[in-house]
Amino acid sequence: MTSHPSSDGNFNKFIPGLRAVLPVLLVLAAVVMPGERANAQNVQSFTCNQANNDSIQVCWSIGGTNCSFPFNYDGATIRMNGSIVTQTTQPSSCITIPNLFPGGYSFSIDVEGCTGGISDSAVCNRFLPCTNPIVSCSTPAINQALITLMYTSTFPQIEITMDPPGGGTVTVYSGPPIPAHLVTGLPAGVYGFSFAPVPIFDCPPSGVACTVQVNGTEICNNGIDDDGDGLIDCADPDCAADPACSAGPCSGGPPGSPCDDGDPCTVADVCDGTGTCNGTFLDTDSDGVCDAFDICPGGDDSLDSDVDGVPDFCDCDPLDGTVFPGATEICGNGIDNDCDGSIDCADPDCATDPACTGGGPCSGAPAGSPCDDGDPCTINDVCDGMGGCAGEFIDVDGDGFSTACGDCNDNNDAMYPGAVEICNDNFDNDCDGGIDCSDPDDCATDPACTGGGPCSGAP
Fold this sequence. Notes:
four-stranded antiparallel sheet, disordered N terminus
């Protein structure tokens, strides 16, 4: 019997669709390793060759003095990467395995049932390279681009990206292979589209690309030939009925004529001779917001940390969303809510508020006078001299409850109203007066109190 070394183990990592091809297989990319050896009696030849870009053809020939068909040859098993592809009784034939992803593949044949129980085997290896599809792009309609792909290799997933005229890269499709993809809503300009298989195989990362001029609907006052017909704005017949050309501020006006483009952000508006009125964008503080809509002249309008609608530059407390210019002044909280420099009763906005006219606990009372702010969780309430009454919230253990608010032990942060009662720690965790098993509401069914443990009921 003649035996052949098997290299199945070197290729188990190349199961299509599961993991990337190891670089070591690149050495085998153009090599076919037939399993035939000198003096072989059963496997006369065994080869694997690339049939198409995504398929491999495996051929075999069984014979010799120990294995003559059909009397003493029971058949052969052919495997790919260790998995059975086919079992055959044909002594000589070929099969084609299609739809294979790029990568390395190991094929083996095991011959059984020859005279005297003699068997034989052989191995061959093949690497399928990545072949990118043919990619083209066209413009089926205005503001649209159609990307068409014709595949010669099999891919598990692809990605199409777009480079718009303004720069950058945008992914327009990512998923299983498709024959075409339509991108709509594109402004006029030159667009580049690129295809690449998702890089889980040894394929070129750049893929292939195409470029297309996308024509848009003619905009009649932007000075651009949007539809690519060589005519701009009012000189384009598409704009004949557009207000910018038929009844606009510059309809028939010569270049330089004063006009009003209707944009409050521009000044010194003049006609450009194509029916369009253009002005100069006025942004004195260069923060990107025109002067007409600038909330904070002289400062940056883009940063608003507390999201109260007023940029930090003009907000007297940029971290408190209730404090900003224009907010309602609360007349007894010791805060300048509306950022006008006056607090509570010193603010004219509070002139008729009960807290400042006689309806509040500190109305007319000097600072430091005892009062009641109505909050049961504070103590030592006193007037602040501006009509406001405020007390101290004392929470020693930091559990969110003060003694005045029901904390039965302000030195233990595990004890406060509403806490979960632990039935064997000798503490009244929820401050309801019951400790451990003496708390029937919380511990009646707890194993520590019903006999579920060696110390049930014991502190």
